[in-house]
Automatic annotation (TrEMBL):
<keyword id="KW-0812">Transmembrane</keyword>
<feature type="transmembrane region" description="Helical">
    <location>
        <begin position="417"/>
        <end position="436"/>
    </location>
</feature>
<keyword id="KW-0472">Membrane</keyword>
<protein>
    <recommendedName>
        <fullName>Dpy-19 like 4</fullName>
    </recommendedName>
</protein>
<keyword id="KW-0328">Glycosyltransferase</keyword>
<dbReference type="GO" id="GO:0005637">
    <property type="term" value="C:nuclear inner membrane"/>
</dbReference>
<dbReference type="InterPro" id="IPR018732">
    <property type="entry name" value="Dpy-19/Dpy-19-like"/>
</dbReference>
<keyword id="KW-0808">Transferase</keyword>
<feature type="transmembrane region" description="Helical">
    <location>
        <begin position="311"/>
        <end position="332"/>
    </location>
</feature>
<dbReference type="Pfam" id="PF10034">
    <property type="entry name" value="Dpy19"/>
</dbReference>
<comment type="similarity">
    <text>Belongs to the dpy-19 family.</text>
</comment>
<feature type="transmembrane region" description="Helical">
    <location>
        <begin position="179"/>
        <end position="197"/>
    </location>
</feature>
<feature type="transmembrane region" description="Helical">
    <location>
        <begin position="484"/>
        <end position="506"/>
    </location>
</feature>
<keyword id="KW-1133">Transmembrane helix</keyword>
<feature type="compositionally biased region" description="Basic and acidic residues">
    <location>
        <begin position="13"/>
        <end position="26"/>
    </location>
</feature>
<feature type="transmembrane region" description="Helical">
    <location>
        <begin position="461"/>
        <end position="478"/>
    </location>
</feature>
<feature type="transmembrane region" description="Helical">
    <location>
        <begin position="156"/>
        <end position="173"/>
    </location>
</feature>
Amino acid sequence: GPTIELRQRKKPKSSENKESAKEEKINNTAIPERVPKHILFQRFAKIFIGCLAAVTSGMMYALYLSAYHERKFWFSNRQELEREITFQGDSAIYYSYYKDMLKAPSFERGVYELTHNNKTVSLKTINAVQQMSLYPELIASVLYQATGSNEIIEPVYFYIGIVFGLQGIYVTALFVTSWLMSGTWLAGMLTVAWFIINRVDTTRIEYSIPLRENWALPYFACQVAALTGYLKSNLNSYGERFCYLLMSASTYTFMMMWEYSHYLLFLQAISLFLLDSFSLEQSEKVHEVYKIYIFSLFLGYLLQFENSALLVSPLLSFVIALMLAKCLQLNVKKGTFVAKIMKVINFYLVCTLTVTLNIIMKMFVPHKENGHMLKFLEVKFGLNMTKNFTMNWLLCQESLQAPSQEFFLRLTQSSLLPFYILVLITCFLSMIQVIFRRINGKSLKETITLEDGQIGERPEIIYHVIHTILLGSLAMIIEGVKYLWTPYVCMLAAFGVCSPELWMTLFKWLRLRTVHPVLLALILSMAVPTIIGLSLWKEFFPRLMTELMELQEFYDPDTVELMTWIKRQAPVAAVFAGSPQLMGVIKLCTGWMVTSLPLYNDDDLLKRNENIYQIYSKRSAEDIYKILTSYKANYLIVEDAICNEVGTVRGCRVKDLLDIANGHVVCEEGDKITYSKHGRFCHEVKINYSPYVNYFTRVYWNRSYFVYKINTVISFQS
């Protein structure tokens, strides 16, 4: 008896230990008491009112966008051609393919014509669905015909109605996320208010409806809301399962809608990795999210015509590196010095594996990854200098420059930025406190009470803090990222001012003793957002109503006349050359073939754009003629706005960038200034003298556009 007992004490079985630990945990767990009916009713009423407010906010925002769009463009009183002209640049291309799908005899035939498209760009067959992420247009066309909407509503209204509806879902998701974080739907109302007031910086829906981000970001907002709920410590199994399923569906849909989605998910994965590294949440939940990434990437790869960009994406390399690092981790007791060293080694291992795997993937997987993006980043951060037209043109785009002072001024005037900074600093410092406690071996509390004043112990809050810091860092460099970051700012600021925990954390640091801190925190969490809401209502609500009352008018008769002439006079087989933005409108309004498109994710199209832009350079008539005929162009359109452009930013006009790229004028210090022996083509061709009249014959013109037929038989008689 005793000998056996002694052996059992020396060599206990791990499985028995685990079972006994589980039994002990079950025995120690208190059996929850039955909740009184009046408390259940209060909870139900709170959830019902919150859900009603969230849905109502989304619907009201969608209706607001529809009304504002109608007043801005006077849309219902326009002819179809005038409506289509409101879609500019790449938006025109996306909507044109929606029209093509509706004209197709069947859905299968329409998809085939888009995946083997040789009627858009001359001498080029493209898979438009893969290259331009046309899944929204495919879905919209199916819904339009399947629901019988063709007998009720015009195609353009159905299309923009879906996008406005998605924006309503976007706002609702932000509402829910802020509500989940703060525990009160008042935070959701404040989030929506700030989002709408700062809509110039939160969305581009007013300027360009069919943009991919307008289709994709609502799904990302749903994914973030589901992830927020999933990371909560006090979530029951049913809620956890629902959040997981919603997160899986929205992640995959987001990836299908936008070609750059995996870069945004990469930032999210980094945030989750840091959350896991700080041991602020169970690793199992975080690794379940990683599995969703892998599933979405491979399913997207298969359904996006084996899109190799997903295989060589940093997201896939990063997630695989995390999985491998987890397999290599040793079971070391937490809090020990060895465990701390292992954390550092694990961090280094993940970074090294990610870079290595990405390099290996690019070596063995044939891909057309956006090489110009890497070159652009090199030039953007001063790592390289270039005279390349495309790179310098991209650098001159407002969305790719650093944000202006007006951006921060607008956020400050709406009181958003000051409260965001307060909330971010408080949450960040609280997070640092928690991390140092973990480093010192102190364990986190299983249940966090309001009296603790430790908002940094909540994993969902820390995830959002890390994510908003990453997005904010990019937004300080590239202004276009503000459309991803500013909605986060609205959500985080609203959560903070409505959260008693945040105020309690501040009071604990200040060691407030004159007033009971818990009571004061509860009062401020209601009073501060109420005061903010009333001040925003007083200052900005009249402005919003004024915008809806004003009847604006989009008037562009020159473009309407040009499109009308093309449809009436140009041969069906004609190919037009001109600026990429104008070519998108021509493709939409007339259906004629063009030489270039306003798309910047394809190296061949970028090269075409640069070559066609030479019509605004100091090149000879013969050079321009050779360029245009190499793309089988029949007509050339010169835009007076580009030819006589007066740019606000020095050196960013198209003709200036072309002169630098062609070496016709060099203004850098130490370099000799040279000039071309030829005049600027767009000016010279208008004068109608030899040799320009030998190559080009003017067939139409108005105040904005000059159309020239490219001669097939050249006569050199003066």
